């Protein structure tokens, strides 16, 4: 069987809407096998145990691109990435499916071609690029190509994913975004995304709080997440370096220095007082990206 491990990803990272993303050490593992006929999906909830399964539909698109006629497919899923929580579960399924199909068909596509196909399926490149390549990436799409570059994040940064017990699909979360934004909001974000990247590479972590600010999506989406403002306030009060909405939400991501364990205890205690259940997961950057094992 072919085994593919794909990391979770946190996209946008504040002002980098649809272009910044980071791979984190939380994983989905998929096992693939070509069988005589049909589709056999194991390890998955009933809702996705059918032909519409995103892993399977992504495999089919890859087989089509390559021109490979498959007989049947078995997929076994071990998923630790929570679904529709802003941690790149869909990108992990797409990347896993495309890589699995490419392996079955004889490793025809290059990593760049895998990226291109996965972005076509996902619709934006910010989760897909770090899921494939690992680390933190900038990725943009023009008419025919995906351009990406890795950001060399300075050592010592810890990610705290605050994951609620409710879901928010990317589709729902994109639906509340405006069609147009004021010019000054565009200027606001351009400056901050540039500052964010230099602060991260130079290790100027004191700049992260300001550079995580955003006017393209968080102000609209924050309203969909109960206690968003209170949690943001508390992250600041407990001394985190910055906080942003992970992907399309509802997970909120706090940044802190990895030597400061007090933040973790403080925020965990506070989240327990809220109406919804919130779990806090301390995470590190995954530098490897998707791997065939
Ligand atoms: N383990 C899984 N098995 C099958 N399908 C899955 C699995 N995990 C995710 N999916 C698919 O991905 C969809 C969730 O994707 P969605 O874009 O809404 O959220 P996300 O990718 O978790 O968050 P974000 O894009 O904000 O990081 C599910 O509705 C389902 O179609
Ligand atoms: N950039 C995407 C990430 C989630 O898939 C969004 O914010 O909608």
UniProtKB/TrEMBL annotation:
A Gene Ontology BP annotation from the UniProt entry: threonine biosynthetic process
Domain of life of the native organism: Bacteria
InterPro entries assigned: GHMP_kinase_C_dom, GHMP_kinase_C_sf, GHMP_kinase_N_dom, GHMP_knse_ATP-bd_CS, Homoserine_kinase, Ribosomal_Su5_D2-typ_SF, Ribsml_uS5_D2-typ_fold_subgr
Gene3D superfamilies membership: 3.30.230.10, GHMP kinase, C-terminal domain
Reactions catalysed according to its record: L-homoserine + ATP = O-phospho-L-homoserine + ADP + H(+)
Domain GHMP kinase N-terminal stretches: 53-135
UniProt KW keywords: Amino-acid biosynthesis, ATP-binding, Cytoplasm, Kinase, Nucleotide-binding, Threonine biosynthesis, Transferase
Primary location group: cytoplasm
Residues holding ATP: 82-92
Iron recorded as keyword: no
Location(s) in or outside the cell: Cytoplasm
Record's signal peptide: none
Gene Ontology CC terms: cytoplasm
Any one Gene Ontology molecular-function term assigned to this protein's record: ATP binding
UniProt keyword Cell inner membrane, yes or no: no
Domain GHMP kinase C-terminal intervals: 210-261
Function noted in UniProt: Catalyzes the ATP-dependent phosphorylation of L-homoserine to L-homoserine phosphate.
PANTHER family for the chain: HOMOSERINE KINASE, HOMOSERINE/4-DIPHOSPHOCYTIDYL-2-C-METHYL-D-ERYTHRITOL KINASE
Protein name (database record): Homoserine kinase
Species the sequence originates in: Maledivibacter halophilus
């Amino acid at each position: 069987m072919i085994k593919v491990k794909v990391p979770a990803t946190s996209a946008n990272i504040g002002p980098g809407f649809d272009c910044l993303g980071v791979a984190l050490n939380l994983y989905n593992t998929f096992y693939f096998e070509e069988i005589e006929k049909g589709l056999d999906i194991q390890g998955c909830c009933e809702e996705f145990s059918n032909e519409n399964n995103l892993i399977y539909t992504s495999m089919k698109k890859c087989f089509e691109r390559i021109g490979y006629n498959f007989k049947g497919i078995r997929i076994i899923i071990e998923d630790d990435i929570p679904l529709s929580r802003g941690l790149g579960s869909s990108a992990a399924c797409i990347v896993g499916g495309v890589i699995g199909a490419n392996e079955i068909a004889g490793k025809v596509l290059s990593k760049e071609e895998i990226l291109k196909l996965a972005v076509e399926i996902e619709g934006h490149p910010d989760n897909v690029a770090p899921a494939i390549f690992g680390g933190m990436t900038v990725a943009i799409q023009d008419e025919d190509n995906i351009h990406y570059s890795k950001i060399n994040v300075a050592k010592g940064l810890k990610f705290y994913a605050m994951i609620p017990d409710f879901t928010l699909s990317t589709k729902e979360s994109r639906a509340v975004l405006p069609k147009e934004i004021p010019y000054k909001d565009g200027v606001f974000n351009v400056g901050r995304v540039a500052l964010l990247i230099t602060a991260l590479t130079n290790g100027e972590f004191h700049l992260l709080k300001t550079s995580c600010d955003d006017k393209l999506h968080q102000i609209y989406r924050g309203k969909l997440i109960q206690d968003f403002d209170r949690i943001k306030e508390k992250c600041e009060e407990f001394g985190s370096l910055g906080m942003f909405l992970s992907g399309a939400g509802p997970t909120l991501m706090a940044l802190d220095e990895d030597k400061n364990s007090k933040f973790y205890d403080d925020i965990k205690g506070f989240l327990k007082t809220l109406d919804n259940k919130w779990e806090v997961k301390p995470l590190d950057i995954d530098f490897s990206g998707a791997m065939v094992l």
